[in-house]
Amino acid sequence: DSGVTQTPKHLITATGQRVTLRCSPRSGDLSVYWYQQSLDQGLQFLIQYYNGEERAKGNILERFSAQQFPDLHSELNLSSLELGDSALYFCASSGGLAGGLETQYFGPGTRLLVL
Amino acid sequence: AQSVAQPEDQVNVAEGNPLTVKCTYSVSGNPYLFWYVQYPNRGLQFLLKYITGDNLVKGSYGFEAEFNKSQTSFHLKKPSALVSDSALYFCAVRAKTGGGNKLTFGTGTQLKVEL
User: Fold this and answer.
1) Max CA separation in chain B (angstroms)
2) Cα-flanking dihedrals φ and ψ of residue B23, to 5°?
3) Closest approach of chain A CAs to the CA of B46, in angstroms?
4) How many angstroms separate the CA atoms of A86 and A88, rounded?
């Protein structure tokens, strides 16, 4: 158990809908990262937050957004969902920025299925 | 841009035999390299990382990896494979992006250890 929790575990929804995925980092970790894992794209970095502020952005669609709250938990919002958004979404956390030398610990993921 | 290549989609090995999962990387600057393992329906578990120092890095569950700068490789090894090692293995390289960090992953190698 990495100490990173994600809810829900599974999510089934319809095209055009909006969903929110939640992540709680390991105790004391300030950085939260979101990744998407799909069969055709593999594991792709979406976005990083550090202590409430956005720090790095990857291949995140404009329909997707995220935030990190004062208690350091993070939410990833996916809107106007399309079939191609079906994937496993991972959250990871690490202690801080530290030049990226810290290990990122991953949560169990949320499996999203868009029908 | 940073990239990671895992040339083998699948590696098969008999239990008790040594195993190697290959990874090559391309980065500008110092490479910070990681190995993760993913069991079915689970998140990614951290195995080991190379930041600096000894080229042979020891990690969890008896795994080790050898950093070779001239060959830009970071192969994962284990002297004696177990059936329970069967899983999907990912090599990753840290990339600085904007004011933060991300992991760039390879496509993964499925390890199958047979009796």
Assistant:
1) 48
2) -150, 130
3) 7
4) 7
Residue of B44, B34, B50 lying closest to B93 (CA atoms): B34
Tokens of A11: 């999510």
**pLDDT number for residue B2:** 86
A21 touches chain B (CB under 8 A): no
Is residue B113's pLDDT more than 80?
A: yes
Contacts of B21 (CB under 8 A, 6+ apart): B6, B8, B11, B75, B76, B77, B89, B91, B109, B111
Q: Is the dihedral of CA B80, B106, A105, B64 positive or negative?
A: positive
Over the stretch A30-63, which tens digit does the pLDDT of each residue have?
999 999 999 888 999 999 999 999 999 998 999 9
Which residues on chain A are in Cβ contact (under 8 Å) with B42?
Answer: 108-109
Q: Is B53 exposed, middle or buried (0-12, 13-18, 19+ CB in 10 A)?
A: exposed
Burial A83-114 (b: 16+ CB within 10 A, else e): eebbbbbbbbbbeebeebebbbbbbbbbbbeb
Q: Decide if A12 touches B, using CB distance below 8 A.
A: no
> Peptide bond before A8: cis, by omega within 30 degrees of 0?
yes
Determine the pLDDT at residue A62: 96
CA distance A101 to chain B (A): 7
Residue in A46, A7, A110 with CA at minimum distance from that of residue B41 = A110
